[in-house]
Known about the structure:
CATH superfamily: Vaccinia Virus protein VP39
Mean pLDDT: 93
Number of domains: 1
CATH architecture: 3-Layer(aba) Sandwich
Helix content: 25-40%
Order of helices and strands: EEEHEHEHEEHEH
CATH class: Alpha Beta
Low-confidence stretches: none
Largest sheet: 5 strands, parallel
Shape: globular
Radius of gyration: 15 Å
Strand order of the largest sheet: 6-5-4-7-8
Number of helices: 5
Structural class: alpha/beta
Amino acid sequence: xxxxxxxxxxxxxxxxxxxxxxxxxxxxxxxxxxxxxxxxxxxxxxxxxxxxxxxxxxxxxxxxxxxxxxxxxxxxxxxxxxxxxxxxxxxxxxxxxxxxxxxxxxxxxxxxxxxxxxxxxxxxxxxxxxxxxxxxxxxxxxxxxxxxxxxxxxxxx
Length: 157
């Protein structure tokens, strides 16, 4: 059974999943998530709900027409809903890698690796490959730290 908890410290929320600090709601994180959301447009699919920061930012972006999130842990959704009062956008309980839909998206956003670090390059590659199957023609894959992972991919060639 997964352990999901929200720890408050100095007025900020920190999301822990199985004793691992997964996400935090601090000003720097909000700036980073807003920058990523500002790149998005059209119908957007987000892999992982986290604390809902990117979803909130996406809904404020006038270029975005819809936001759908795939989250595999119902415990995360329950915790966030109880803390913040609601979930942002449409949310489907499913594993992103097993997610099947006939809907195609303009952008797929990922933040489902635990750190921007070369040890997570294969996780990023797996995410990107799955994301491409869910895109409309000329769609865009976006992700936290994607520039770094793309740099590493170029270095492999």
